[in-house]
Design a protein that fits this description.
Layout: E1 2-6, H1 11-23, E2 26-33, H2 43-48, E3 57-59, E4 65-66, H3 69-79, H4 91-116, H5 120-126, H6 137-154, H7 168-178, H8 193-203, H9 206-210, E5 218-221
Parallel strand pairs: 1-2
Antiparallel strand pairs: 1-3, 2-5, 3-4
Helix pairs in contact: 1-3, 1-7, 4-6, 4-7
């Protein structure tokens, strides 16, 4: 099994790395893709790994390719040995985690990324490899701001979105916020006190620092009973 990882902490690769570190009990190989220089858009990668040019991607032992970060994370969750699930132990827990994961993705992560992709920095970075929407930039900020305002209310009295520990929803949201806060100045203002406190709790976790680094070629993560 090979995880195609990136050479810097972009939102999608960081999210999968953070999930793997939090989940533990995983063994796989990793191959670093030069995302900074758009190696994922090269014909060789699109032909051999993923026609959509997405990173990360996971090559299974039967040579099938799995993409999309929530799909990769759920696969890791199912094959991990020991530790505690980050998707949920029961049908009710899984439904709740998936609900929150969908909410934070649609209401915050996607519009926030779309806002950045509407700017000049994104145009220079992608070099024509994405169709950007600068005319929608202000709308995307308002959508993300509204989502964060709602989230600030939702987090009142809670340490994490789905209970007493981080789950897939927390990991996805933090993965996108932590890797974007330096280029999205309006993302985490002090006025959203509950979001700011949640963000700090996530930042203080050892896995959050570990996930900043790309995986080595061979990855072996011990089961994390404290997840």
């Amino acid at each position: 099994m090979i995880l195609y990882d990136s050479n810097f902490a972009a939102p999608n690769p960081y999210t999968v790395r953070l999930f793997a570190h939090e989940r533990g009990g995983l063994n796989f190989q990793a191959e670093t893709i030069d995302l900074a220089n758009l190696a994922n858009r090269a014909l060789s990668y699109r032909t051999a790994v993923n026609a959509r040019g997405e990173v990360p991607a996971l090559r299974l032992d039967d040579d099938r390719i799995v993409t999309e970060i929530t799909a990769i994370c759920e696969y890791f969750d199912e094959i991990a040995t020991g530790g505690r699930s980050l998707i949920g132990q029961t049908a009710e827990e899984r439904a709740t985690v998936r609900m929150w994961t969908r909410r934070v993705d649609l209401e915050v992560a996607e519009p926030m990324v779309a806002w950045w992709r509407g700017g000049a920095d994104a145009e220079a970075y992608y070099r024509g490899n994405r169709v950007l929407t600068p005319a929608a930039q202000q709308d995307n900020r308002l959508i993300a701001d509204r989502g964060l305002n709602q989230l600030d209310d939702d987090l009142s009295g809670r340490d994490f979105l789905c209970g007493d520990r981080p789950m897939m929803a927390d990991i996805l949201l933090y993965g996108f916020m932590a890797t974007s806060v330096s280029v999205v100045p309006w993302l985490n203002p002090p006025g959203r006190t509950n979001v700011a406190a949640w963000f700090q709790r996530m930042a203080d976790r050892p896995a959050s620092a570990k996930a900043l680094d790309s995986f080595e070629a061979q990855v072996s993560l011990a089961p994390n009973s404290a997840a």
